[in-house]
């Protein structure tokens, strides 16, 4: 069985492999939780991503960001990714 540190490392590695993380700011570990049946880790990584403006005047000098979260479900026995889900929040 993998421990919490290994689960976080796996989720972070997958995040970097799947996305161009240079486009994101403030990438942080947000939450870690083991399933009640101890079969999987839920690892949530949060980051800000810039949202382009459709209005030219609004886009000059302004930067709108959205906080986005990716939750990775990592198998506690094998360390394999079971799923990845997304959520967002306004910033």
Give an overview in words.
The chain has one domain: Nuclear Transport Factor 2, Chain: A (Roll). The chain is elongated and about 50 Å long. It has two helices and four strands. With 91 residues, it is of the alpha+beta class.
How would you concisely characterize the structure shown here?
The chain has 91 residues and is of the alpha+beta class.
Fill in the keyword field for this structure:
91 residues; Nuclear Transport Factor 2, Chain: A
Helix and strand arrangement:
Blueprint lengths: L3 H15 L5 E11 L5 E11 L5 H4 L5 E11 L5 E10 L1
Antiparallel strand pairs: 1-2, 2-3, 3-4
Question: Which sheet architecture does the biggest sheet show?
Answer: 4 strands, antiparallel
Q: What radius of gyration results from the CA coordinates?
A: 16 Å
Principal-axis shape: elongated
The average pLDDT value, as a whole number, equals 88
**Helix content, binned percent:** 10-25%
The CATH topology assignment is Nuclear Transport Factor 2, Chain: A
Percentage beta strand: over 45%
Shape-level CATH architecture: Roll
User: Which CATH C-level class is it?
Assistant: Alpha Beta
Quaternary structure: single chain
Structural class: alpha+beta
- Annotation field: number of helices: 2
Name the poorly predicted regions: none
Main sheet strand line-up? 1-2-3-4
């Amino acid at each position: 069985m993998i421990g919490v540190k290994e689960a976080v490392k796996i989720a972070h590695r997958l995040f970097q492999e799947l996305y161009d993380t240079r486009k994101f700011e403030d990438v942080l570990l947000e939450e870690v939780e083991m399933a009640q049946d101890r079969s999987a880790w839920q690892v949530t990584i949060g980051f800000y991503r810039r949202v382009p403006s459709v209005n030219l005047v609004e886009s000059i000098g302004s930067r709108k960001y959205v906080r986005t979260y990716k939750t990775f479900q990592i198998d506690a026995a094998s360390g394999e990714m079971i799923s990845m889900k997304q959520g967002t929040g306004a910033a």
